[in-house]
Amino acid sequence: MFRKADPDVQIKTPEQIAKMRAAGQVVARALDALRAAVRPGVSTLELDSVAEKVIRDAGAIPSFKGYHGFPGSICASVNEEVVHGIPSADRVLSDGDIISIDCGAILDGWHGDSAVTLAVGQARTEDLAMMEVCEESMWQGIAAMVPGGRLGDIGYAIAGHIAENGGYGNVREYGGHGIGTQMHMDPHVLNYGKRGKGMRLREGMCLAIEPMTTIGEHHVVELDDGWTVVTRDGGRAAHFEHTVAITAQGPMVLTAREDNRDKITQMGFVQPTW
Predict the structure, then answer these.
(1) Other residues' Cβ atoms within 10 Å of the Cβ of residue 271
(2) Which of 214, 219, 162 is nearest to 191 (CA)?
């Protein structure tokens, strides 16, 4: 069914990439709905319900729900929480918070996975600056996804942008991943690396690119709930992610939202179906 670049790396056909774009569009619609729903006074469990409804109404399945026992359809990580925050009725957003929302969907057996960090109400200037750098580092990493490149080129681009634009913490314990018929597949994609090193990138590879930045030190710790990852020093964190296919013409963002259209054009990436 799949060509192989490596024993554990799927190489997708154009038809399979189109199916992944369909799954990515479900995720994009869920994140659009969540962006509209984020406000002071809403709980992260309410946001979880919004996402699950959008996903199931599209005939898809939430990737996260039940994954190794995870109880939510989204990961909702607030302020110092970096990733894997569990949605809760007790976690109510307040003005000035920031929330990282990670969302995944399975459609016809194919996965889409994407994340955004959003400001709640009136944002702090320092948070917005850190979020902007995190998101742009993702785009720079995506730009390195070209046939003939190396896996290390992606991490090099991400880390370089973060280091050169405010010197925010670059979380090293977590990173991106291959994606396709499973949510997490080989290869693991570090958010740092050496240019020209690592696995050769090939047309048909699909990767989730997801940098995580912090205000303060990059060190993180997992809480006793076995999921939520927080900064060790209590500094706030941001997380952005897109699922991306490598094509002969360059990267194609499979979880692209309408608000990404101008950026994709600016970067010269392959236009996905809209």
Answers:
(1) 12
(2) 162
Residue 233 near residue 217 (C-beta atoms within 8 A):
yes
How far are the Cα atoms of 32, 142, 244 from residue 205, in angstroms, in the given order? 26, 12, 8
Please name the residues in contact with 232: beta carbons below 8 A apart, sequence gap of 6 or more. Answer: 217, 219, 220, 221
Q: What is the pTM of this model?
A: 0.96
Would you state the pLDDT for residue 62? 98
State how far the Cα of 95 lies from the Cα of 161, in Å rounded to an integer: 29
Q: How many helices and strands in the chain, by DSSP H and E?
A: 5, 17
Confidence of residue 6 (pLDDT cuts 50, 70, 90): low
CA 203 to the chain's CA centroid: 21
The closest alpha carbon to 113, from 28, 55, 189, belongs to: 28
User: Which tokens belong to 62?
Assistant: 């939430």
Domains in the chain, start-ordered, CATH in brackets? Answer: 3-265 (3.90.230.10)
**Residues pairing with 200 in the sheet:** 150
135-139, Cβ contacts within 8 angstroms, sequence gap of 24 or more: 135/238, 135/240, 136/161, 136/165, 137/161, 137/162, 137/191, 137/211, 137/213, 138/209, 138/210, 138/211, 138/240, 138/241, 138/242, 139/263, 139/267
What is the number of other CB atoms lying within 10 angstroms of the CB of residue 26? 25
Name the pairing type of β-strands 220-222 and 169-170: unpaired
The CA-to-CA distance between both ends of the chain, in Å, stands at: 27
220 near 232, Cβ under 8 Å? yes
Q: How far does CA 192 lie from the centroid of its chain?
A: 16
Is the pLDDT score of 1 beyond 70?
Answer: no
Cis peptide before 147 (omega within 30 of 0): no
